[in-house]
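User: Hi! I have a protein structure encoded as tokens and I'd like to know what sequence might fold into it. I'm fairly new to this, so please keep things simple.
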């Protein structure tokens, strides 16, 4: 990646030795803003559309000369959406945590980097319908095992470095919380009536996709990241259908850190 390097060290005497550990951390902090569509038939048969705002912290940890790297992602988003008739609205929020292990390939002298592996994808959130009297809210909680991949192409234009990056994750299987059709949250949590509320998921009943295409570029001694995120989460379990489709523009700042050891 193209960015500046910051060393992490502590005050030491002139006799101390500084040794490189080979560890490199890349962190991107981004803001995303875009359009979203929400359907949750537990709350309403209507589709709601509006605006979503999200914050993304994206970290890659790798060691020079090694084939494996780790990726840690935190995403928080809030959305305000309205029905087609504009007489009702829903408020939604979600926290997403991703932890991935990737095997790395480097081609053309490091100009093309490819990472592929597996990711654990945890999501916790809610949808609240302001018009409903009974059961106005829906909790969202699911855990996925997700194959994922990242492709980065480094190039230069007039000696200015750029990095084009595409990342994709497609959930393969997991578990999801869901009330059953016609079941209230009072029955679940107050009366303790379990009715298939922890549901196994796979690509057939919860086909989903999260992908991001970005461009890193240097401006005023800072590396910026600009691009597109498409997040398409959907499920059909317990005779209930849910989907949240988001198209967002993301922009942020990228920093690279090289870790050093200080030895007396």
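Assistant: Happy to help. Inverse folding works backwards from shape to sequence: for each of the 264 positions I chose a residue that suits the local structure. Here it is:
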């Amino acid at each position: 990646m193209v960015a500046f390097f910051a060393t992490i060290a502590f005050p030491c005497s002139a006799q101390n030795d500084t040794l490189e550990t080979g560890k490199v951390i890349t962190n991107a902090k981004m803001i995303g803003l875009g359009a979203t569509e929400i359907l949750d038939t537990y709350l309403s048969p209507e589709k709601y559309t509006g605006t979503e705002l999200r914050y993304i912290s994206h970290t890659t940890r790798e060691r020079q000369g090694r084939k494996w790297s780790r990726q840690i992602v935190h995403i928080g988003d809030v959305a305000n959406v309205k029905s087609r008739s504009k007489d009702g609205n829903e408020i939604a929020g979600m926290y997403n945590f991703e932890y991935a292990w990737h095997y790395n390939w480097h081609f053309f002298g490091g100009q093309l980097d490819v990472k592929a592996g597996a990711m654990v994808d945890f999501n916790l959130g809610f949808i609240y319908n302001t018009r409903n009297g009974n059961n106005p809210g829906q909790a969202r909680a699911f855990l996925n095992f997700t194959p994922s991949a990242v492709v980065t192409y480094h190039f230069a234009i007039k000696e200015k470095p750029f990095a084009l990056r595409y990342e994709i994750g497609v959930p393969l299987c997991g578990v999801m919380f869901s009330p059953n059709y016609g079941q209230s949250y009072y029955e679940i949590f107050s009366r303790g009536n379990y009715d298939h509320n922890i549901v196994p998921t796979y690509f057939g009943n919860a086909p989903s996709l999260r992908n991001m295409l970005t461009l890193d570029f240097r401006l005023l001694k800072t590396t910026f990241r600009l691009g597109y995120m498409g997040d398409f989460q959907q499920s059909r379990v317990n005779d209930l259908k849910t989907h949240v489709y988001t198209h967002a523009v993301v922009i942020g700042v990228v920093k690279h850190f090289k870790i050093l050891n200080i030895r007396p």
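A useful reference point when you look it over: The two ends are 32 Å apart (CA to CA). Feel free to ask if any position seems puzzling.
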